[in-house]
Amino acid sequence: MYEKMHQSRLFESRIKEAYFEGKSPLFNMAKGPIPGEMHLSNGQEPCAVGVCEHLTDGDFVTATHRPHHVAIAKGVNLRAMAAEIFGRSSGLSGGRGGHMHLFDPAVNFSCSGIIGQGLGPAVGAALSFALQGLPHIAVAFLGEGAANQGAFHEALNLAAIWKAPVVFVIEDNGYGISVAKRHCTAVARNSDRAIAYAMPGIHVDANDPDLIHEAAGTAIARARSGGGPSLIEIVTTRLEGHFIGDQEGYRPDGEVAALAAIDPIPAYRARLEAEGVDPALLDEAEHIAAAAVADAFAFARGSEMPSAAQALEAVFVERTAA
Amino acid sequence: MNIPAPQRKLTIAKAMAEALAQEMTGDDRIIVMGEDIGRLGGVFGNTAGLLDRFGSARVRDTPISETGFISAAVGMAATGLRPVVELMFVDFFGVCMDAIYNLAAKQAYFSAGKVACPMVVMTSVGGGYGDAGQHSQCLYATFGHLPGLKVVLPSTAYDAKGLMLAALRDENPVIFMFHKALQGMGWLGTVPGSITHVPEQPYEVAIGKAAVVREGGDVTVAGLGITVHHGLGAAKALRGEGIDVEVIDLRTIAPLDRETVIASVRKTGRLVVVDDDYRHCGLAGEVIASVCEAGVVLRAPPVRLAHPDIPIPFAPSMEHAVLPDTDKVIAAIRRAMEVDR
Ligand SMILES: Cc1ncc(C[n+]2csc(CCOP(=O)(O)OP(=O)(O)O)c2C)c(N)n1
């Protein structure tokens, strides 16, 4: 888990560097090798690794507009993912989708930029597995802001009446863009909403991969054994702005400066060392992570831009001969 | 002595915010709701300053619950308020479309005209900056197609203020679209022609009236939002070749000002329509059909320049290839000039 967290963080730092190429001194989103909005996941790595550690390639995961950490934890092809974010023809969708629309069918991963809209597909995939007698489950990741979307409530109810093998994972980073959770959510804990849909609601009050792993383990075991859905809410941290370029004027004074102290990655390393894990092993994990990220970025940057004609392809899938 | 009024150059974002503030001052039935519209002043700056001025009872940051707050606006409009709601990107409307096309758009009709629905829905449209398929659409035709809605899209700050004031005073639901490439947000890059003089005094720009923004005798180029600026760029480029282009800014998608286009094409005999929305069943086709139905004799087949029928691609090498731009308008005008019958 430490290696994946580290890999995710390095991936995001390299993305951030590349994102600013051609965008400064005058920040303009349209410029540089990676145009468009960019939502980094720094700080939320424990949620992704703690949950995905339990999953196989066949399990189905939907993520949000902030998808990189989850994609990495789920084992999405790192080269093709980096290439997609750079808009190259070797990317997951050949450069058609970009950072908010990563699809990797090899590990049943997808994401969407529309809030709350990944939950329904996860419920459907879960029921589909059950009906086909497959051992897989589904996990939908969402932000705490998305729990106020109608689709959240519909999906939870549906999952409950269908007893679908699905787990809903809320990453509560306290903000939906500029709006703080306490200003827009009637309950302090979204996990309390689970009771309205007759499923367990688990609250993990620490951005700690081990505690998250434990909580997710219970929920996932329940799903796999036919026990039905669960809802988990994890209190986590968004170390960056909502998107790169966000001025974050809505954060209370001092909050940004205090973020480094609650960074979960150094905290996890310190804990592992305190528990007696050999620091050389952790260094080794960091090296492996760094090498994978370096390789993915070299692959992405070395890949070709898609041609204009490719834009017109893949709108539909052809019928295959029976 | 004749002292010229000083020029106040504003962006579309500032012009929209000014119109809202002026009208809210005189009309306390107006309330503004949406995501990040309060403290942040709107992701696109068009509600900046309103929270400080009018307070949190009238300027409300909402949860990400569009089905809830947009249908709530319909109820407010039925009971004496004049709500203004924002939903950041037009691409997000899938989650709350029922409130728009089954409730807001039909409130008047189902009540035999007795219950009005005075609400304004603000949303951004347009791509070109790599935000990909769920954050770059225009959907002019999607909204323009629905009876009971008025749909506007300014191409300049002057029009933005005037159209906003007209929308706020209208008794019906108005979808107020603004184009990201014209909005005047530093981080998006802005077409300079959209930043114009805006008089301080309130004024209206009529909904449903197109404008001839450049007169010419050889060919009519009709567009809206950013494509008006492409049209003006093309007109300038072709002046040297002796091609005299008339440019029309449609300004309102519904109701569409067919008369202004028809009158122009009667004069020029040639028509190019430029639209950054999807081509199929689109606004460009509607404009061309209206001219043909009016029996205008064309000297060359009309030309439709629109986004092809594919989701908007992310990679710049694909996105820039499929979106209309000045060069593509120039090529389209050349095509219209080739034939003379
Ligand atoms: C239906 C819909 N409404 C609004 C948005 C705009 N939007 C994008 S991210 C976001 C905030 C999401 O907050 P949260 O779910 O807590 O996730 P976080 O960004 O904190 O990861 C909003 C409002 C959207 N993408 N889709």
Walk me through what this model shows:
The complex is a heterodimer of chains A (322) and B (341). With 322 residues, chain A is an alpha/beta fold. Chain A has eleven helices and eight strands. In chain A, helix 2 (45-52) runs parallel beside helix 3 (68-74) and helix 5 (119-131) runs parallel beside helix 6 (150-162). The longest helix of chain A has 24 residues, at 279-302. With 341 residues, chain B is an alpha/beta fold. Chain B has helices at 12-26, 50-54, 66-78, 97-103, 107-110, 140-144, 157-169, 226-239, 258-268, 283-293, 316-322, 326-338; strands spanning 9-10, 30-34, 59-61, 82-89, 120-125, 150-152, 174-179, 196-197, 211-214, 219-223, 245-249, 252-254, 271-278, 303-307. Chain B is globular and about 60 Å long. The relative contact order of chain B is 0.12. The structure holds thiamine diphosphate (TPP). Thiamine diphosphate sits between chains A (65-66, 113-115, 143-146, 173, 175-177, 242) and B (35, 64, 66, 88, 92, 95). Thiamine diphosphate (TPP) sits between chains A (65-66, 113-115, 143-146, 173, 175-177, 242) and B (35, 64, 66, 88, 92, 95).
In whole angstroms, the N-to-C terminal distance of chain B is 54 Å
The backbone outline of chain B, from C-alpha atoms, is globular
What does the overall shape of chain A look like? globular
Give the topology string of chain A: H per helix, E per strand: HHEHHEHEHEEEHEHEHHH
Oligomer: heterodimer
What's the total number of strands of chain A?
Answer: 8
Radius of gyration of chain A (Å): 19 Å
Q: Provide the low-confidence segments of chain B as ranges.
A: none
Structural class of chain A: alpha/beta
Helix-strand topology string of chain B: EHEHEHEHHEHEHEEEEHEEHEHEHH
What summary fits the major beta sheet of chain A?
A: 6 strands, parallel
Mean pLDDT of chain B: 97
Number of helical runs of chain A?
A: 11
Number of strands of chain B: 14
Strand content of chain A: 5-15%
The tally of helices of chain B reads: 12
Strand order of the largest sheet of chain B: 3-2-4-5-7-6-12
Q: Helix- and strand-based class of chain B?
A: alpha/beta
Helix share bin of chain A? 25-40%
Distinct bound molecules = thiamine diphosphate
